[in-house]
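Below: protein 1.
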Amino acid sequence: MPRNDYPQGAVNNAKRALKWADENGWGSCGTEVGKQRANQIASRENLSDETIKRTYSYLSRAAEHADVPYSEGCGGLMYDAWGGKAMLRWAAARVDEMNERNMDGAVRRALRSMTREHNQNNPDNKTTQVALGMMYQTLPGEPRERIRAIRSYLAGEPQEQQRKAQADGVQYRHAEMRAATDDLVVEGYAAVFNSTTDLGSFQERIAPGAFADVLDDDVRLLINHDGVPLARTSNGTLKLKEDEDGLYYRGVLSDTQAGRDLYTMIQRGDISQSSFAFTIGEESVDEDGVRVIEKVSRLIDVSPVTYPAYQAASVYARAEQKKEND
């Protein structure tokens, strides 16, 4: 249910960030999504449940930047653009209400217990029941499988796998995907050419032709860059091609509980973003200081993700969009 009863402090934070940017410019700070969010909050527009979830996700991840002066980097400016500390507290409460509506008592007790145990053992890296509730809602599988996946996440197993991969040169970027009208088929663009993305410490774009040498790679469609493949190029269930817009893909998900759950969540909008993993073959820097990926040397996977590192294209159901456009 859309709502705009967030605190005045959040509105003031967004207005302050917009005023500073109007006087000094955004520079390399923020994405179009972040700037749009600042204008929504400053104008006290209604925010959908999905927007509230994304706002909580961003503010909770970026909390370390909350008190950074605007003149010392992008972190503090963009944190206030999203409503700052006042918005974080409000969004956390709203997400908790959403989780309560969609979970039974046994799941809530399990999440509460995991939160308490994790925070006792990791005082410098605490989580919240709200955050785990959001993760539970967007994971595929039966309740027991979701709880097991969250325990694995808290133990650092997927993160350790990604750290090892990054040490070998693997990088992760956002992608677009959508649920097609065919059952268990997802399709979209894993990367869009010449679209500059703000990655925080630098900006980046992908040049046309960057994927020409990796279209025959053995690429998997995973969830959160982890687990068993739900589609794969080597068996023909995942197709890749490069056109004038970017790297297009079409995947037929496995007819398993995980595949069916993922398809449903993309249709409903529960999972709203994805990313892809790759290694860089050739790169350059253009006249604006933007890093340009000229050649990808290895394409590893395309993955819908629960908590993306960067804001990017939304995941949506093509069938629903078609109805809206008719």
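Below: protein 2.
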Amino acid sequence: MTKHPNLGSSLDDLLDEDGVRPQVEAAAVKRVLALQIEDQMRRRKITKSALAVRMHTSRIAVDRLLDATNGSVTLSTLGKAAAALGCRLRVELV
């Protein structure tokens, strides 16, 4: 029986080998943040329009915030969303 050359390697190894790990991790973080914001909106019964008013921004800006594929959201916008939802934003390097 021949041993498969990739057996035992991790997804991180594959992403590193392909040189796409930072992009994949950034996309995953953005997706998680969008889901967390949507969850808080649902729990507090806050619509997109209401969140926009609380953030002093447009509904389109909230749509961009909730778009998991849009990586251009700033920390400032995330902080405004957190405050508007009664939450705190925590950013850390690991």
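The helical segments are 11-18, 21-44, 48-55, 59-66, 75-84.
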